[in-house]
Amino acid sequence: MYLLTDLFGLPAHALLVHAAVVLVPLAALGVALIGWRASWRRSYLLPLALLAVTAAGFAFLAKESGEPLQASVRSAARAAGARRPSFGEHPQQGDAAMIWAALLAFGAVGLLAVDWWSRRIMIPARLPALPRWAPGAAYVVVLIPAVIAVFAMIAAGHSGAQLVWRDVGTYTSGG
């Protein structure tokens, strides 16, 4: 049984993927920007971590909603007597984009935890202090999944757009 197949009469994948394509790069950009100033981290790290978790949630829902869409397209092709449709690398790229979005979310939450620990926010006094370099190191580490998540989302989005528009475009270009 699939988690989500349609929303408002449309395939859920077509709607959910847009949220992931916008929010994942936005969260990655936010991660890149907050590293420049401690005041930005203090002000924006919690909302940014929440944004990254939300983006990863939409990436997961887009992936999960893509599987029933793929099955539906195959079923429709079989019913029409057409050859089995090829989805190319898109399903694997969607899986990779979802994984990197999740790693970005974990990294953003980890960065928040390190920042709070270094400033002793909600941290028990019995725990040792972090070294001064810990927040900077955590920032550099979280940049890796942030950058890869953007490129993974671009790759999945591009291959998905090609799947949709390659066939549709043949009907709209001069026929």
Any low-confidence stretches, pLDDT <50, length ≥5?
Answer: 168-175
The strand order across the widest sheet is: 1-2
Major β-sheet profile:
2 strands, antiparallel
Number of strands: 2
Task: Please give a structural write-up.
The protein is mostly helical and 175 residues long. It has four helices and two strands; from the N terminus they run ββαααα. It has a two-stranded antiparallel ribbon. A hairpin with a 2-residue loop joins β1 (6-7) and β2 (10-11). The longest helix has 42 residues, at 38-79.
Keywords:
single chain; 175 residues; mainly alpha; 2% strand; disordered C terminus
SSE topology sketch:
Layout: E1 6-7, E2 10-11, H1 12-34, H2 38-79, H3 90-118, H4 134-172
